[in-house]
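Notebook entry, structure prediction.
Reason for the run: the old model in the group folder had no record of what sequence produced it. Starting over properly, with the input documented here first.
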Amino acid sequence: MVRSRHFGIRRVIGVAAASLLAAGTAALVGPGLAGAVNPDISTFAISPTTPAVVAQGQSAVAVPSETFTLVNDFTLGATITFTLAPNGATANCKTGTTDYVAFAATPTVTATGAPSTDTVPKIAVSVGPNTANDGACGSTLNDVLTLTFQNSASPSNADTWTVTISGIAYNVGSTTTTGLVSLTDSTTLTNGTSSATAASNATVASPVKAGATGNSPQATVTVNTTGSASNIVVTESSAGAVSGSICVTPITAETSFSFSGSPTTTASPTGTGAGTASATALSGGSILVTVTASTSVATTYTISGISVTDGAASGPAAAVVTTGGASCAADLSVVSTSVPVFNSAPKLNPAIAGPDIDATAIAELEAAYPINGGAGCVPSHTVVLATDQNFPDALSASYLAGYLGTGLLLTPTAQLSNETQAALQAEGITTVYVVGGPLAVSQNTINEITATPAFTCGGPGVGHTTGGNISVTGPIFGQTQYDTSEQIAATPPSSYVGTIDLAGAYANQYNDTTGNDSSAPEAAGALRTAIVASGANFPDASSASVMAYHDKFPLVLTDPNSLSTQAASTLSALGIQQVIVLGGPLAVSNADVSSIMGMGISVIRVAGQDATDTAIQLASLELNQQGTTFSGLGWGAPGTWNNTVLVARGDFYSDALAGSVLAAIHATPLLLTENPSTLGAYLPGFLNAGGSAGGIDGLNAVVGSSGNIQTVQPLGGPLALNASTLSSVVVDVADG
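New structure, fully documented this time:
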């Protein structure tokens, strides 16, 4: 398993960063500003519903997030306060200084769900002591969580927010009362009545002198399937440590699963004084083993024949092992709070590919717009056509394809390939937008297109002729790739240019090179945005093509050393206010960036140590949610990227060239390998993060599994990405 330095360490996603920064300023704001009205909250609940098991004496143990519904009536300076205590207690340390449960760190808070017209709550987070009620502990524990509002609702209406408290971890005293932890809303409301009832996210159990191991040898199960897991072994350190039962309960906070099949348990050694396992059964997805305790011999219990039914999320899957009760719910003694069970692997889709570059482009178009027996195809009946002999025209045209609601097809320069001609008819294309001049798409090729009869969806085999031939718009071109890029960007109306607020993405948030960029945006709010990439090489523009298609950002090519006059003209003509530069100073020089900034345009540089690293940095920008500091494009929102990544070779342009059309299905990041047989130094760390508990850049803490890679979609056949390379992708995600 390889972990990259990028993920979950240097970059904190927008909303989490907002919470952490705000926590440092909470004392300046303080609770109860004059006129502040504490808001209504309700349905204070744990999500997921299964509390984590924590052992007495543990420190910094992670527990599930809590959620509550917030009515849109918050005001500046209003506070919501939660108090943490052992089971049934109103405060800590009622029976001694080691009877406590406290926050190990400051959690993060996010608010989602209300209409975009509402003001997003800005919430400062702080933890502190319950000095008035903590007995012998006094002010030594952080057991009070305070949320302080930094703004007021506007407009005030009946809308509600879903507020999530995530990144919660507890310190637990060595004699803390066992049972459910109490986390209660102790807010004094000055307006309305809180109907919040606490739902515990942790159960305190006493540790026993035994240990548990699992997932050896390592087992891998694909998401949403059933597979086999290795034995789980429970070993006593002293005789009788395990008594009454062994319960193995899945931890479902991220990698959700249940046990299935017919497991069995054996005990060793056997004989007088040793423990015995009399029965093994499944209980609500858990394994329940009935044991007779050993009296004089430390016993090892081996649970074998284990099957697991995997849920949606990928990454390492673990379980809690407890003992002592007749049922899992009654166990209050813990053997292990987390024993590995198996690794959950993302689904590996069949590659979208054809026998050559043109056929791969056709496969990508048909993946986005299936022919479906004549009932599907491109609704606009248009397509963009570019040469397969080079990359600049097709990559620039990803923006145009997005505007037209279609994809790209490719052809040799001299003549229209037979497979592309057949695809035009099969997809029901009536108009072809040709990009590139006669040295890219010859006049002979254009003549062949206009001589091709147009068909309805399905082509000659299923559809029927329209009564005319396919028409051509264009060619759209200039004397160089930079001229053609300029002409392509000018084809959609200026009003089509996408806008976004990325105020939190500046100051090298996604730049691991010495390349310069802006420290902050020149203007506030959503800005008209374009992409600038090198026109001399393909990888950076390839990975950005999906973003250009989905987010309506013109993809502008420039000379690596100095800003092309055509690029400058495009940025000016389209009224661009914000540019996302792809690649380090060898791809787009500091002189380029200085020229862009000299036009009054703000620059965010997205760059890594190589092309694979730049694609990773871009994927983070794409997935990171906007939140309150606007750090990303927000693709990580549930249902947007569908937890899927595209993967293509990074040493040749063929397979990614027309892949931007897949953004018509989902806003999916495009990752690059170093070559067909090597992932490179940086991609494994990103994949690990996609299977980790936190997810890519910590996104899972914002919305469950939003940063979890669950599907891998290769672009290109086995000569582009060989089987071992794809296996490495899957394994790296599963390893987390």
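Summary: Residues 1-35, 189-193 have pLDDT under 50 and may be disordered.
The old model has been moved to the deprecated folder.
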